[in-house]
Amino acid sequence: MTGLDDAVLGRATSQALTERALDALRRHADRNAVITLAEEPALRAAWQVDHQRGEAGPLHGVPIVVKDNIHVGGLPNTAATPAMSGFVPAGDAPAVARLRAAGAVVLAKANMHELSMGVTGAASAAGPALNARDAGHIAGGSSSGTAVAVALGVPAGLGTDTGGSVRIPAALNGVCGLRPTRGRYPTEAITPLSGTRDTPGPIAHTVADLALLDSVLAGEPVTRPLVPPATGLRIGVPTSWRRAPADPSTVDAFEAALELLRGAGVTVIDVPNFEVNDVEQRIGLPIVAFEARRELTRYLAAYLPSLTLSDLVEKVSGERVRAFFQGCVLDGAPGAIAEEAYDHAIAHGRGELHSAYRRAFGTYDLHALAFPTTPQPAAPAGADEASAFDVLTRNTAPGSLIGLPGLTLPIPTENLPIGLSLDGTPGGDRALLATAHRLEHILTQVTART
């Protein structure tokens, strides 16, 4: 697959990249990766990029897909739910505007788990997105279509991540995904779920591509991370994640990857007493449920004032998504979260998580914490959403609650994709990308020689 640098350096025209990406989506239409395909506007934009004069932007002519909850001017923004099917924003979300200003061409709005409330990609008014490697398996979510489109051949895409919604589908489809430090990228003009946890995040083929996209999305000068030598890296592996149930194929692939890293000189350290999952299970849902009511009500008032939250929920197509909103989010819902419980979760629960991460990084002088992105590969299509949610978010959700940067990169395997995730420290996005770049190089180079 052509990387982003190939397009920027002129080794492929924007029109060629765009036609190639369109062809990949057509040939794999059964994966249902996109909701709205902007073929003619994208080809016009690609032609204009190829014929423009002056200095090229860092994403000169690169076709991308954008998750269908992030506003793209002139294209529908459905959030994969029926009540929003006719909503066409007039302008771009700031994150999209930054990508376009850098030269990116928006190819399509990508499929997603309805209202971002799910991790399989199965619940969508446009029908389920399916795994790029094997259409008989789930795509992951909620940025399902973005990850599938990239895995099928689109150079890059933009999703959103609340508790793993970029990293989970990226891992299950064999590509790279980045959740930045919360607040690093602009979050306006995005259909929300949780103001504390939501952030846009890029999905691409390599860590270098993620680094390029990160610079653009953060509004920073485009630079390459200073990649550290392997012998100076210290990676922590929480023993709590090792004790949790996991698919044997995932365990084997993860442990084999750690052995390759050790063989290259990386110091891999067991981190005991890192108990964060019980905290996340205690406070994660209350925070999302309370904030979903507040954030979606504000969003609808700003962009769809004729649509109430109750009206939106009444038309939700996914049974489990609708049940969550009816049971926990709407005013008067039987499981509605009291403000006192929410305030306690924000003030105390998140404080516990901050303390756990500070202790781990400080005690062991770590560059990153490492774990399998998901405890298992993609489940067969039709898997139970409730059990999938608990399993697939187990490793990605805790860091998300306190806005940490996290990314996933593929562990080389001939079977269904498996991801290796890294969590970093707040604001340490570039350092995390540099660490991931070194680990990716080790894993791909060693595998290529065997």
Q: How would you portray this structure in words?
A:
This protein has 450 residues and is of the alpha/beta class. The protein has one domain: Amidase signature (AS) enzymes (Alpha-Beta Complex), CATH 3.90.1300.10. It is built from 16 helices and 11 strands. An 11-stranded mixed β-sheet has the order 1-3-2-4-6-5-10-11-9-7-8, sandwiched between helices. α10 crosses α12. The longest helix is centred in the middle third of the chain and has 27 residues. The model has no long low-confidence stretch (mean pLDDT 95).
Features of this protein?
450 residues; alpha/beta; Amidase signature (AS) enzymes; eleven-stranded mixed beta sheet; 43% helix
What is the structure about, briefly put?
This protein is an alpha/beta fold and 450 residues long. It is 43% helix and 13% strand.
Biggest sheet, spatial arrangement of strands:
1-3-2-4-6-5-10-11-9-7-8
Instruction: Report the CATH topology name.
Output: Amidase signature (AS) enzymes
Mean pLDDT: 95
Helical segment tally?
Answer: 16
Could you say what the CATH architecture is? Alpha-Beta Complex
CATH class membership: Alpha Beta
User: Could you give the count of β-strands?
Assistant: 11
Estimate the helix proportion, in percent: 40-55%
> What structural category arises from helix and sheet content?
alpha/beta
Radius of gyration, in Å, reads 20 Å
How many structurally independent domains?
A: 1
The best one-word shape is: globular
Could you state the order of secondary-structure elements as H and E? Answer: HHEHEHEHEHEEHEHHEHHHHEHHEEH
Largest sheet: 11 strands, mixed
Beta-strand proportion: 5-15%
Span between N and C termini? 21 Å
Low-confidence stretches: none
Considering the protein shown, what is the CATH homologous superfamily? Amidase signature (AS) domain
